[in-house]
Structures are given as C-alpha cells and as structure tokens.
Amino acid sequence: MVSSTKTSSRPYFGYGSNLWQHQMSLRCPRSTYLGIARLKDYRWIINARGYANVVEIPKEEKSTGAHEKDVVWGLVYGLTGDDEKRLDGNEGVPDSYTKEVMSVEFWDERGKKGDEKAIDVLKKPEPRDVLVYIDRKRTSGDYKPKSEYVHRMNMGIADALKEGVPEAYVHKVLRKWIPEEEDEDKQEADLGGEARTVRVKQLAEQQARQFVEEDEGT
User: What is the pLDDT of residue 209?
Assistant: First the structure.
C-alpha cells in the first residue's frame, strides 16, 4: 500500500494503471498518496499501444458544462527523485510517453473528516501543478486494451472509487474500454480459457512490478 504521509516531493497525476496503489508501491516504493485530481479539457482513451492516454480536446469541441467525458480523474502521488526515474523507465520515456506539467483541480486526502473513507469531491478543490505522462503522437482512441492491462485497470478502478473518484466517470468513460473483470472472466470460462485467465493475471502482476513492452499481436 502506498503511504499517505505528506512529504516534500513532486506531485504526479496517475490516470491509468497507476490508479492501482499496489502497482505504485512496487514501481515507486517511496511514493506517497496525496489525494485525487481532475484534469479538465482532456479525454481518456486507450491508444494504439493498448494502454491509457489523455488527449487534449480541441478548442472548438470543448463543452461549457462539466461533462464527464471532457475531464480525466486520477490519483495524485508524491514522487521522490529516485521514484520518478523508476517511473520514467516503466512509462517508456521518451518513446511511449513524454512528461509535462499540467494544472489540475486537486482534493487533498488530508481534508477528510472523522470517519470519512473517501474524499468528498463536492467540496471546493484547489489548483495544483502536477507531473503528467502523455503521448502526443498516438491520440486516436479506437483501440482495445492489452488483456493484462484490463486486469491492472480494474484493480486501479477499485482503488480510485475507494478514494473518491466519481462512479459516473468510471461508468461513462473508463468502462467504454475496460470491461468489468467478472464479465471478462466469465467470457474466458465460457470459452474454456481458465488457464489463459490465470496467465493473464500473472502477466499483469509482472507488468505491475516492472513494465516490459509486449510484442505486437500479444
């Protein structure tokens, strides 16, 4: 589990499989969980590599209202210098992603009161500049996620919901690409693919620890 102790570190916005706090504890063992954030005027997609990306919405397409499809929610972690270097390797910088600093609306996890387990996003957020890994080259979202990535995303979605990311965002945005694991497992079982399901989850755990680019077609 990622620590929630505040330290002097660089805030990083995780919106894909790094929503999974177990994965972050493996990849960035000294990282700290800081809270949740909303990146406006971007859309969440699965790109040509089969992994998550955020795509800036063209000015003419931006909506005036707070539409779930026009924002990206994520968890914010504090990274030490060593953790950031480790994350660069896992994210494939600079080939798969590049790094940018963006402004987000931030809800500090320390703002929870009493027995509150999740952050109340109805409360007023504060602006915060955060590190974002983004792929400016592969911006089309008409692709399917890697099979093992579906498992890691589902683990991350569970953590995100626990921390306070809105359910409406999960259902209207993430579920367009990421099926619930029960549905995926049932399909595999119906096709006699129990062994494959086990292999996929084992691969997901390996990728969570140290990402290795899969060969094309896998």
Answer: 86
Strands 32-40 and 126-134: unpaired
Q: Three-state SS string across the chain, please?
A: CCECCCCCCEEEEECCHHHCHHHHHHHCCCCEEEEEEEEECEEEEECCCCCEEEEECCHHHCCCCCCHHHEEEEEEEEECHHHHHHHHHHHCCCCCCEEEEEEEEEEEHHHCCCCCCCCCCCCCCEEEEEEEEECCCCCCCCCCCCHHHHHHHHHHHHHHHHHCCCHHHHHHCHHHCCCCHHHHHHHHHHCCCHHHHHHHHHHHHHHHHCCCCCCCCC
Q: Which residues contact 143 (CB under 8 A, 6 or more apart)?
A: 46, 47, 48, 49, 50
CB 77 within 8 A of CB 2: yes
**Tens of pLDDT, residues 196-208:** 788 889 899 889 9
Question: Is 152 within 8 Å of 12 (Cβ atoms)?
Answer: no
What distance lies between CA 155 and its chain's CA centroid? 10
Q: Can you tell me the distance from the alpha carbon of 90 to that of 100, in angstroms, rounded to the nearest whole number?
A: 16
Per-residue pLDDT band at 64 (split at 50, 70, 90): low
How does pLDDT run across 25-53, given as a tens digit for each residue?
999 999 999 999 999 999 999 999 999 99
